[in-house]
């Protein structure tokens, strides 16, 4: 019995930060408006101060149960992917199990990954189902990144949004499945996307909030996300094509056999550059970031959900999913919908 | 092999949103009004697409002028 993606729902926090709001907050950025438009975002949703990653995740799961008539008692494993956890210990997934009233025989696990998180989650789910005998994996991916953006960081406040996605990975006799995966890690690039202070390695100290201004005038500090955008761009256009070619080889597929490419929504300029570099037809690359921004581990499932909703992705389609980013970490898989 | 002037003219076409007069080999690109990290990405994408050369952020930091970018391209080719 093969594992497959059975259903997806997603939740967006109510507060919205539009481009109009952005240019009121950062009026000097209007001079850069045309370039910012290349990023491909018009608005992003922002979690409120008392809305934690687990809260968003619970809301997305409840939405999934309701929209897809899923019985929580059928879930026998819960995966929670986030960068923000309720407590140092216990595992937040255990707390979520209780909140969602999942059965006590359900396994529960946290993992901390960003942009590649959804693909890694699918791989774990596939292993649990096809090797361990689990029947239904609930994968919750969340972004509450806006809480960790410096108030004066124009670049990242334009790009990122909050969201949570609930994906049910299950098994039945249909032809839907997940094929082989490819992964990669380069911890040497860890500092390219990092919140330097506030973890165990570097506790918050009086220097954590000192402003750091980069060569382009963008501001952050060690207590907030520091993303070296130019380096991340180079990493992306170097790594993602190789990842895809490796994945195609593993799966014994040609590139023209892929019906749809869904990339992590890093930003539209990165995706366009990758698409042109690989000579992928425009109509085979589907994006959805105008309304939500870069939602980190939720970006791929949100795009997949929207692709299915608008008919761009149909049952039986061969779809390539590729996530890449913080870690540095990357992963991709091919699914038959 | 593309000349420095041809390289400069080709790169200038990538910056359709900027009003800075003609781009010259001696132009210190970081001092162009409105220069941002997005323009740095455009330079990297330009070099990758046209010359199959992928610059890192560290590579770019070593250059000041359009001529420096051209020389770096030749060096890496």
Q: What attributes characterize this protein structure?
A:
heterodimer, A: 337 residues, alpha+beta, Peroxisomal Thiolase, Chain A, domain 1, 2 domains, 5-stranded mixed β-sheet, globular, B: 77 residues, mainly alpha
How does this structure look, described?
The complex is a heterodimer of chains A (337) and B (77). Chain A folds into two domains: 172 residues, Thiolase/Chalcone synthase (Peroxisomal Thiolase, Chain A, domain 1), CATH 3.40.47.10; 158 residues, Peroxisomal Thiolase, Chain A, domain 1, CATH 3.40.47.10. Chain A has nine helices and 15 strands. In chain A, α7 packs across α8. Chain A starts with a strand and ends with a strand. By secondary structure, chain B is mainly α. Chain B has one domain. The chains are: A alpha+beta (337), B mainly alpha (77).
Overall CATH class of the largest domain in chain A: Alpha Beta
Describe the biggest sheet of chain B? none
Biggest sheet character of chain A: 5 strands, mixed
Bulk shape of chain B = globular
Mean pLDDT of chain B: 88
Short note summarizing the structure:
The complex is a heterodimer of chains A (337) and B (77). Chain A has 9 helices and 15 strands.
Layout of secondary structure:
The complex is a heterodimer of chains A (337) and B (77).
Chain A: E1 2-11, E2 15-18, H1 19-25, H2 33-37, E3 43-46, H3 53-67, E4 77-81, H4 92-99, E5 107-111, H5 117-132, E6 137-143, H6 154-159, E7 163-172, E8 177-185, E9 193-195, E10 212-213, E11 219-220, E12 225-227, H7 229-250, E13 260-263, H8 268-277, H9 299-309, E14 318-325, E15 329-336
Parallel strand pairs in A: 4-5, 4-6, 13-14
Antiparallel strand pairs in A: 1-7, 2-3, 6-7, 8-15, 9-12, 10-11, 14-15
Helix pairs in contact in A: 7-8
Chain B: H1 4-12, H2 37-51, H3 57-61, H4 66-76
